[in-house]
Amino acid sequence: MSQRHAQLPPAAPGPDPLDPADGALLDAAEACVMAVGMKRTTLTDVARRAGVSRMTVYRRFPDVEALLQALMTREFLAVLGNTVREDGSSARERLARGSARGVKLLSEHALFNRLMDVDPELLLPYAFHRYGAFQRAVLGAYGTVIREGIAEGSIRDADPELLAATLELMLRGPVLAARTEEVSASRDAICAQLETIIDLGLRP
Can you give the chain as a three-state secondary structure string? Predict the structure, then answer.
C-alpha cells in the first residue's frame, strides 16, 4: 500500500458521547441557532428555552462551543445514518448510492444551511485544518463498508482507510459549494454523477 490513513492530518479529539438525556438541551440549542445563529447563541438562552437553570446546562456542557458541537454531531450523524443503511445491494452500490444521498441530505439540512447563511466561518476549520467528529464518523463508517466490499469482491482491493479518506475529501466539494447558484440548481444531476463516479472508481 502506498499511503496509510494514519499519515493524513490528525483528527481533533472527539467530544463526549451523546447522552439521550441531552435531547431537550440540544433541541433548545437548535432553536436558538435557527433564530439567531451560532455566534449569538448563549448557554443562558439555551437554558431559558429549555426551561432549566443555567447550572443544569453547565453540568453537561462546560461552554456553548461544546454544546453546539454536540448539536452538530447529533444532526449530521443522523444524515450519515441514512447514507450507509442496509438495502440488500452490494457494498459498492450501497456506498455509491449512499454517498450521493448524503451529499443531497446534508446540503439540504436546515442547520447546515443556517450555518452557511449566518456563520460560515465556523465551518472553515473542518474544511481546511482538522477533522471534526462528523468527519471521523464518516471515515469510520465508510471504512467499514469498504472492507465489506473488498471481502465480497464488489470493491477493489486497496487500503480501506485511504479509500475512505479519499472519498470523504471528494464529497466535501459539492457539500461546501451547495449554496452556490450553479450547484443548487443542478443538485440532483450532480448527485447522480457522483454516484456513477464513485461506483466506477471502486470497482475491482
Answer: CCCCHHHCCCCCCCCCCCCHHHHHHHHHHHHHHHHHCCCCCCHHHHHHHHCCCHHHHHHHCCCHHHHHHHHHHHHHHHHHHCCCCCCCCCHHHHHHHHHHHHHHHHHCCHHHHHHHHHCHHHHHHHHHCCCCHHHHHHHHHHHHHHHHHHHHCCCCCCCHHHHHHHHHHHHHHHHHCCCCHHHHHCHHHHHHHHHHHHHHHHCC
